[in-house]
Specification:
This protein is mainly alpha-helical and 345 residues long. The chain has helices spanning 17-39, 47-68, 105-123, 127-152, 188-207, 237-255, 269-291, and strands at residues 85-86, 89-90, 166-167, 184-185, 210-217, 220-227, 263-264, 267-268. Strands 1-2 form a two-stranded antiparallel ribbon. Strands 3-4 form a two-stranded antiparallel sheet. This is Phosphatidylglycerol--prolipoprotein diacylglyceryl transferase.
Length: 345
């Protein structure tokens, strides 16, 4: 007698290379963010308590932003956008159909920021400390994400005759009507990979002032770039630079893409989103530099500090209760503080 066990599902699971690469990028970014938070004095792997909120809400934000900027793809005569299933199984035109593509990075930043704020409130981390630790790591995750676009041939640009042009199969849903098979297109995801990689170097260089110091390497004395021990960009200013850098790149990448998008005042919706990202980043940088001229006293909010086992108390620590005169202190002064009137996060 033959017996079986399982469920009769109206759909099949499909794991794509793109999804695996995205997952790998998230894992790598998590490890790097954990290392950067530990260097700031945070508890090891507290990052997991934050990303458990940031990643799911980032996915929700990514999908919501895409749907809102592509309403005509889901809401039209005869459509059934709210149903997950139809007579054939999974409904590919549902607003919930993330497996059919359509996740906007700007929406994921908004949703992820909300999730990170929740996670930071629960753990006691300063939100801007976490954001600064995440800034270069999220660019690295986005590099992997755009590598995934090579495998699914999404987000390519205008036709080109440049030698690095990408050939897209004519069956691709985004293939422009009227163009002959074999047409080459700008690999915008490759451009973004390069832009983000350079951005990582930019952020790390801006975060710490580097100078050439003579070091012995393999028996040879050579000048090696060495950064300051303490970051000079804190209180969310490094994250602000990320917003500006990434937004500037997206303005150009979005301008040469051919996939359908809502247009407002002759400009694609995602270009407007990138412009808003740049403006918000500039404002954030200026406001935080003005509000917090001193050094972050701790990666934690007052009263939520974490002390490693075996650590001893010391008066040579940062404090939110120091005098306002300490706000102008430099990073080399161990007793520097952001001032008693500074906002904790």
């Amino acid at each position: 007698m033959e017996s079986t066990f399982g469920w009769d599902l109206p759909f099949t699971f499909r794991i794509t290379t793109y999804a695996l690469i995205i997952l790998f990028g998230i894992i790598v970014a998590t490890f790097w963010t954990n290392r950067r938070l530990r260097a700031k004095g945070a508890e090891p792997w507290i990052v997991l308590d934050v990303i458990i909120w940031a990643v799911p809400l980032g996915l929700v934000g990514a999908r919501a932003y895409h749907v809102l900027t592509h309403l005509s793809d889901y809401f039209y005569e005869g459509s059934d956008p709210w149903s997950l299933f139809n007579e054939s199984g999974l409904n590919p035109n549902s607003v919930w159909a993330i497996w059919s593509g359509g996740n906007a990075i700007i929406g994921s930043l908004i949703g992820g920021a909300v999730g990170a704020w929740i996670g930071c409130r629960l753990t006691g981390l300063r939100f801007w400390t976490f954001a600064d630790a995440l800034a270069p790591a999220i660019l690295l995750a986005q590099v992997f994400g755009r590598l995934g676009n090579y495998f699914n041939h999404e987000l390519f640009g205008l036709p080109t005759d440049l030698p690095w042009g990408l050939e897209i199969e004519a069956s691709n849903p985004a293939f422009p009507v009227g163009l002959p098979e074999g047409t080459l297109f700008h690999p915008t995801f490759l451009y973004e990979m390069i832009w983000n990689t350079v951005g990582i170097v930019f952020l790390l260089t801006m975060e710490r002032q580097f100078r050439l110091v003579k070091r012995t390497v393999l028996g040879l004395t050579v000048p090696v770039p060495v950064g300051d021990a303490k970051p000079r960009l804190q209180w969310g200013t490094l994250w602000a630079l990320y917003m500006v850098w990434y937004g500037v790149g997206r303005i150009w990448f979005e301008s040469i893409r051919v996939d359908p998008s809502q247009v407002f005042l002759g400009i694609r919706a995602n270009v407007w989103g990138a412009i808003a990202l740049v403006v918000a980043g500039i404002i954030l940088f200026l406001v935080q530099r003005r509000r917090h001229p001193g050094v972050e006293p701790s990666p934690y909010r007052p009263g939520r500090e974490w002390t490693p086992e075996g650590a001893v108390d010391s008066e040579a620590t940062y404090s939110d209760t120091d005098d306002d005169s300490d706000e102008a202190a430099t990073g080399s002064e161990l007793a520097a503080t952001s001032g008693a009137k500074s906002s904790p996060s």
